[in-house]
Design brief:
The chain has about 325 residues and is α/β, with parallel strands linked by helices. About 35% of the residues lie in helices and about 25% in strands. Strand 13 and strand 14 form a beta hairpin. The longest helix is centred in the C-terminal third of the chain and has 20 residues.
Length: about 325
């Protein structure tokens, strides 16, 4: 059985997925859609795929088993709902929406039409992180502290959508969501959030309306406490993206997706990998379709991780603690 897949979006992240999927057996990139039609045409020539500028037309005209939705947060409309109604499974990149209301609409559609979904939180597929999670579950004991970091630079040039809050949602929603999801993956659900944001380091940058420094404190349902810091003001070669976790019997130091150190009382373990988490998530999603298996990171997980970002934004705006889960509107 050959699975036929389509792409909604033909930008950088979509190309990353295309490159990997094109190497897999029994799968065909059949159609590519982008509102910037030249991007779609370029990718279409590479993968011998049909080209569209409207995803509704693509889904109606092509016999697709699945679509990869890899577009900026502001561009989301009814991709999941339209595909779900027609029985097309959906892989969707993070963050899945700018608002929790929109994310929950997607979740309801996927549930109603019983399609398989997967969200692109590829850190969960890191082999070293998964080994650390297994050790934590077997030997770690109670978790006390989780510390997360997303210290990077500004994405794109002066006109890039990432710089504008109404388009990207800000760094905490668009990038730091990976760390929030990793916190949930390792330490469980969050009970409440308190956040402070500011725009200081890049305040004179043109079209820059998002926070450039942030601190989000987390209280987990287990009783553990945590914090996640973010900035787009890191200097070249000075950035860091990772997590530290302290449990009773061990400590996890996660440095990106390819390296983790586990510290015990008198022992230090180091796990590294040359694996490809994006390849692994794509392959697992396709396997789930062909073998009728559940997916590891369904859209319901994307909703929960988005909810932390939304709660942090609400907290920073209101200057108070926000309890989770957020009300359903």
């Amino acid at each position: 059985m050959v699975l036929k897949v389509g792409f909604i979006g033909a930008g950088g992240m979509a190309r990353n997925h295309m490159k990997r999927i094109s190497t897999m057996p029994n799968v065909e990139i059949s159609a590519i859609c982008d509102v910037a039609i030249e991007k779609a045409r370029e990718a279409g020539r590479t993968y011998h795929a049909s080209v569209y500028s409207d995803f509704h037309d693509m889904i109606d005209k092509e016999d697709l088993d699945a679509v990869w939705i890899a577009i900026p947060p502001f561009a989301h409309s009814d991709e999941v709902e339209y595909a779900a109604e027609r029985g097309v499974h959906c892989f969707i990149e993070k963050p899945i929406a700018l608002t929790l209301e929109k994310a929950r609409e997607m979740e309801r559609a996927a549930k109603k039409y019983k399609i398989k979904t997967m969200v692109g939180y590829h850190w969960r597929q890191s082999q070293p992180i998964r080994r650390g999670k297994d050790l934590l579950a077997r030997e770690g004991g109670p978790i006390g502290l989780v510390a997360g970091f997303w210290w990077g630079g500004i994405a794109g040039g002066p006109d890039h959508w990432w710089r504008r809050r109404e388009l990207s949602g800000g760094q905490v929603l668009e990038q730091t969501t990976h760390i929030f999801d990793l916190c949930r993956f390792l330490a469980g659900e969050v009970k409440r959030v308190y956040a402070e944001f500011a725009t200081i380091l890049n305040a004179d940058e043109p079209n820059f309306t998002v926070e450039d420094v942030s601190v989000v404190t987390l209280r987990f349902r287990s009783g553990a406490v945590g914090f996640v810091t973010g900035t787009s003001g890191a200097k070249p070669n000075g950035g860091f993206v990772g997590l530290r976790l302290f449990a009773r019997n061990l400590q996890l130091n996660i440095d990106g997706t390819d390296r983790i150190c586990v510290f015990k009382d008198r022992e230090r373990l180091e796990f590294t990998s040359i694996g490809d988490p994006v390849y692994d998530e794509d392959k697992k999603f396709l396997d789930a379709i062909s073998m009728d298996l559940p997916t590891e990171t369904p859209i319901s997980e994307g909703v929960k991780s988005l909810e932390i970002s939304i709660a942090a934004i609400k907290s920073a705006e209101a200057g108070r603690t926000i309890e989770l889960p957020l009300p359903v509107s």
